[in-house]
Amino acid sequence: MYSSNFIAGFGAPGSGKTLDDFLNFIQLNSPLLASLLVSFKDGTITVSGKGEKLETGTATIGNTIYVDPSLLPNGQKALSFGMLADALAHELGHALLPDGESDEAAALNPTEAIQLGQKAEGSAVTAEFLVSQQLLAAGVPGFLAPDGKPEEYSDRSGGLASSLVGALGNLKASDFTNLDSIKSHSDFLTAAESIGGAYYTNQRPSANPTITYQTSWVSTWFLETQFVESVAQRVSEVCADELMRRTLKDFARNASLISGARMLDGICNDNPTLPALQKYSESHTAIQ
Ligand SMILES: [Zn+2]
Questions:
Q1: Pure H helices in 102-185
Q2: pLDDT confidence of residue 212
């Protein structure tokens, strides 16, 4: 479940920062996170590498969670055990909750792609919030701002966690001890997904200042459904060779970033996401 390069990102035996030390910390401070890790036992937790799509932060693709190695205890931007636990809880929310992973390419239109993306980030934020509340209750530092607002890794200003506390109503974070207990409190889950999804819409998934989560959700939908698939379809009509088809599909994906801004005018008329998509396309064109 833990790749060797993930384990290597922790401290040497005796440092107090080994993976075992971290897992003991989780066991002691968040019953929910300890249980979510058990539920994920068939998955893989590994580090992201240079040249991969995801070089910074953390991400989940299918049954694999990627962590930027610089965030691990041996890394330059090492997170505290508490914040690392919180970030892992976010990714486990993506991997385990019913709406946690979105497939924007399956959406019928840009609006639906945004809704899917919001539900996925909302699910992740829900798991993360509950774990952050358990860590706070256990006295782990870093989860309460000086002004008394609760904090979590996704929002160090405390506004998001405060809204999610409101969604709890009469429930307590300690009521959530495993995956099923999150799923079974469906009213809370729905409300928290909605709050978390709305929060994430305008956040930035990378250092690129022109790309928000909404931009990336809609651009994925656009590239896969309106451009790449239609090119692949045309290619398969004239060429049965699978390798050629895949190669041309990759080419189409790159070419679409360059021509996307122009094409979008015809496809997304009057759609409010158009300016964001144009910026996305322009920024990629500039890099190439
Ligand atoms: Zn996320």
A1: 110-137, 159-168, 179-184
A2: 86
